[in-house]
C-alpha cells in the first residue's frame, strides 16, 4: 500500500494530466468553431519525480504489487464464473430431465 505522500503525489500527477487533456479539448473546440485558440485557463503543475532512490523504489514496489494482484484476481474471477456457469448448466439439465420425465405419455399396450 503506498504511503499517503506517494498517493498525494500520484493524485496531483493525475490531476495535471486531466488538466492538460481539458486544455487540449478546449483548443480543439475553439479551432473547430473557428475561434482563435485561447490560453489555457488552468495552470498545469508538474509533479516532481521522487527525490531519493528509496522513494523511487517504494513507488515501483507499489506498482509491481498492483500488477501482480490484477492477474491473480482475474484468474480467480474466471474460475468462479466458470463454476457458476457449470452449476447453472447442471440445473438446466436437471430441470429438463424432470420436465421430460413428468410429461411422458403412458406406455402403449
Describe this structure in words.
By secondary structure, the chain is mainly alpha-helical. The protein has one domain (4-102). Helices cover 72% and strands 0% of the residues. The chain has helices spanning 4-32, 53-102. The protein is elongated and about 95 Å long. It starts with a helix and ends in a 7-residue tail after the last helix. The model has no long low-confidence stretch (mean pLDDT 82).
What average pLDDT do the residues reach?
82
Total strand segments: 0
Q: Compute the CA-based radius of gyration.
A: 29 Å
Which structural class fits the helix and strand makeup? Answer: mainly alpha
Query: Helical amount among residues, as a percent range?
Result: over 70%
- The end-to-end distance, rounded to whole angstroms, is 76 Å
**Beta fraction of the residues?**
under 5%
Uncertain runs with pLDDT below 50, 5 residues or more? none
Largest β-sheet summary: none
How many separate structural domains? 1
The general outline is elongated
Number of helices: 2
Query: What is the string of SSEs from the N terminus onward?
Result: HH
